[in-house]
Amino acid sequence: MRVVIDTNVLVSGLFWKGPASEILDAFLAGRFELYASEELIAELREVLSRPKFQTHALQRGLDVPEVVERLKATARIIPVDSLPPQPALRDPDDIIVLECAVSANATMIVTGDQDLLVLESFAGISILTPARALSELTK
Questions:
Q1: Rounded alpha-carbon distances, angstroms, from residue 93 to 33, 84, 85, 97, 133
Q2: Which domain covers residue 58, as residue numbers?
Q3: Is the confidence at residue 103, as pLDDT, over 80?
Q4: What is the spatial order of strands in the sheet that 2-5 belongs to?
Q5: The CATH number of the domain where 83 resides is what?
Q6: 3-state helix, strand and coil shares in percent for the chain, rounded to the nearest 5
Q7: What is the mean pLDDT of the chain?
Q8: How far is it, in rounded angstroms, from Cα 117 to Cα 32?
Q9: Where are the alpha helices (DSSP H) in 29-138?
């Protein structure tokens, strides 16, 4: 199964227990293929460099550059094709997630972002919360 995980889920999974961390565990266990783009990696790097997340990283003994490099080494980093402007998007910044998913021919997008979740699907790709994605991955 081809999956794109939104930055908010990656960050949540790194720092807190719950469905997002279980999604990361499922990836590490080889239950699906993770796809990302350079744009999503850059967004993750930027978010993790924020002071509040630096504090969490220090508390957990995580080195942010190392975490980002490990993700780059284990995910399939793909070039993305630009999509035309999407009038249904409440947050235009979310286009990078959709572009990655379409370019990867993904099965699902895992996100906690309500602006994406309201779409339910995009170009035949399911958009699911971490909890719903877990139930799909364990079928």
A1: 24, 13, 11, 8, 22
A2: 2-137
A3: yes
A4: 76-77, 33-36, 2-5, 108-110, 125-128, 121-122
A5: 3.40.50.1010
A6: 55, 15, 30
A7: 93
A8: 21
A9: 38-48, 51-60, 64-74, 95-103, 114-117, 130-137
* Helices and strands in the chain, H and E counts: 8, 6
* Residue 10 · residue 72 · CB < 8 Å: no
The whole-angstrom separation of Cα 84 and Cα 28 is 33
Distance of alpha carbon 80 from alpha carbon 97, whole angstroms? 10
- For 16-64, the pLDDT digits (tens) are 999 999 999 999 999 999 999 999 999 999 999 999 898 888 888 888 8
Give 63's contacts (C-beta < 8 A, 6+ positions apart). Answer: 57
d(CA 2, CA 130) in angstroms, rounded, equals 15
Tell me the one-letter amino acid at 39. E
Tell me the per-residue pLDDT of 107-117, one tens digit each, with 9 for 90 and over.
Answer: 999 999 999 99
Domain count across the chain = 1
Does residue 85 or residue 77 have the better pLDDT?
77
